[in-house]
Design brief:
It is built from 9 helices and 14 strands. By secondary structure, it is an alpha+beta fold. The strands form 2 sheets. Strands 1, 2, 5, 6, 9, 10, 11, 13 and 14 form a 9-stranded mixed β-sheet that branches. Strands 4-3-12-7-8 form a 5-stranded mixed β-sheet.
Length: about 300
């Protein structure tokens, strides 16, 4: 068993005073907005989550690597582009951040980041992160379960999938000045994947708010799927009857599928998926089915041919 699934988070943990103070500080960030929305964070500020039982027993990748070796094509294609360009582009000037909730639900509308987060207790979860390029990290996220957020908008019986969209703003995302990808970046999940307890909306890592390079102010984390499913800087969540055509499916339909579950047996045309390089380690390690989360999620795909539904 690779992750410890302990008892539910206790009330005493979520009402811990330090956590409460930090949450208030986080919520105070948005005071400038006309709607209750947090500003684009220029630098990270403290953000604590209650320690969750959802944690792998592996050494977290140093924060330096997590925040400087990134894939975020809105800034450029080099791993160093996001960290190098974000400080001069993304943070200026500060602007409120809102999310549009739409589609098959009873309560669509626009909601400020603060209001989206406020009702939920922040958790710290230490997850593996596996990029389809065959490198991996272990990241201590701070976030809230996506399921709890989605339920508030009361998805109806036609809501079979959820689609997420990244902000389009070439002033802040210099990579969007060229057509590296078909902007906006779009990703999607099947409803049961979105509602799975492991699926997280992250607003921080290593006890601080997300830096732009990691998808500030809010991004998706689905630890059993390849990293590209973890869409950054989300401005829209839409409930749909049919699966989203994701950015990578549009860009290379033969290389990327909708599910993108980590699978050592199904190779990408350019990268074998049998092994991976954990950033900071010398020897390659074996890639685990569902990135080591098979016990928790394999049942979602019972009866599906995973070589076809990749
Ligand atoms: N909007 C957007 N989200 C994105 C990407 C991107 O280019 N644009 N890259 C994805 C890929 S390929 C990976 S591996 C992860 C990397 O997340 P990290 O840089 O925080 O480790 O972000 C994903 N989310
Ligand atoms: Mo990736």
């Amino acid at each position: 068993m690779l992750i410890r699934m302990g008892p539910d988070i206790r009330e005493s943990e979520v009402t811990d005073k330090g956590l409460w103070l930090d949450r208030r500080r986080f919520l105070a960030m948005g005071a400038a907005g006309a709607v209750a929305a947090s500003a684009f964070p220029v630098g990270a500020s403290p953000l604590t989550g209650a320690k969750s039982a959802y944690k792998v027993d592996e050494t977290p990748t140093p924060m330096k690597d997590v925040t400087t070796y990134n894939n975020f094509y809105e800034f450029g294609t080099d791993k160093s582009d996001p960290a190098q360009l974000a400080p001069s582009y993304f943070g200026k000037p500060a602007k409120p951040w809102t999310l549009a909730i739409s589609g098959e639900c009873a309560k669509p509308g626009t909601i400020g980041l603060e209001d989206l987060i406020k009702p939920h207790a922040l958790e710290e979860r230490i997850y593996r992160m596996r990029c389809v390029e065959a490198w991996s990290m272990v990241i201590p996220w701070v976030g809230i379960p996506l399921a709890d957020v989605l339920k508030r908008f009361e998805p109806n019986s036609k809501a079979k999938f959820v689609e997420f969209t990244t902000l389009v703003d070439p002033e802040r995302f210099p990579g969007q000045r060229s057509r590296l990808l078909d902007w906006p970046y779009i990703e999607g999940l099947r409803m049961d994947e979105a509602m799975h307890p492991l699926t997280l909306l992250a607003v921080g890592l290593y006890g601080e708010t997300l830096l732009p390079q990691n998808g500030a102010p809010i991004r998706l984390v689905v630890p059993w799927k390849y990293g590209f499913k973890g869409i950054k800087s989300i401005v829209s969540i839409r409930f749909t009857e049919t699966p989203a055509r994701s950015t990578w499916m549009k860009s290379a339909p033969r290389e990327y599928g909708f599910y993108a579950n980590v699978n050592p047996k199904v190779d990408h045309p350019r990268w074998s998926q049998a092994k991976e390089r954990r950033i900071g380690e010398f020897l390659k390690r074996d890639t685990l089915p569902f990135n080591g989360y098979a016990e928790q999620v394999a049942s979602l795909y019972a009866g599906m041919d995973l070589a076809v539904n990749y």
